[in-house]
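Let's do one together. I've listed all components of the complex below, 313 residues spread over two lines.
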Amino acid sequence: AHLVRISYPGRLRDSTPILKCISPCLQLLPLSRYLLCEIGVSEPASLQLLDERAVYTAVKAAVCRAHGDYGAALSSISFAVKYVNAHTGVVFLRCRKRYYRLIWSALAFITSLDSRGKKIPCFFNCLHVGGTIRTCQKFLIRYNTEQLHRMLPRCRNEAERLEVQKAVRSCSLKCTRREEEEEDEWDEDK
Amino acid sequence: MQEPAAYERLVYKNASEYHYMKISLIFEKEGKRLEAAFFKQLIISALRDLYGEVGAAFPFDVLKFDEASLTAILRVYSSGLVKLWSALTLLGSYHNESCAVRVTQVSPFLLALSGNSRELVLN
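Okay, and this is what the predicted structure of the assembly comes out as:
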């Protein structure tokens, strides 16, 4: 059903206007927002079961529960799970700029992911909202560098320390995958 | 020479923070009675279907409810009027019984709901 805006004396301010008057400067390019999230699980082994479909269905179900038919329909306009990293639990979600808050608020209500028949209890932690994937990648590199810096004082032996220092020095946009692998190796040692 | 008359014009952009709706619930089956609590629960479930838990949590009040004629006066914050009205429009059934909501009057002022030109009786 279409929702029609009723006009009466006094201007209403509701957060998501359905009909928008045509303004002189039209922005016709579909703007999107990329949500950089981190999935936290109690057992790191269950992270390996992570895949895009499980995240997609979980987020859609959470938005439907929190915001109803209205929210589910609006947020699913060009909603996609762009990237899932099963080692670190990093997820990129893409949605429309106007409705990203619906998804953002619903992320807090996700308690479990259903992947290949198994239920993984988890929580979603939104780290960054960016306009493009590139800005999100840049933030992720800075964030991972900070995490590695925090890990450095807790290194147990010299080999681990050297590895972490090497990883920190090699942080750049091109070397993202290698740096994540090194972080993962360190995690396994721990 | 006379000074120009001074006057002051007050313009209210937002007339009132609440909006009041007079609605009536119509069932397919005649003669159905409902309690005020069930009526409010019905509206909340309509809000939940359309706007989810966040929408269902939006506060509104049932100021008056007449069980015999199933008419009610609702009060809602102005920011939630569109949500409430759209949820009432799309309300279709109550416990597997078809029903509909007719919105008789909407006004930012409660006094305006005391009478309307449809029910005006001229003597």
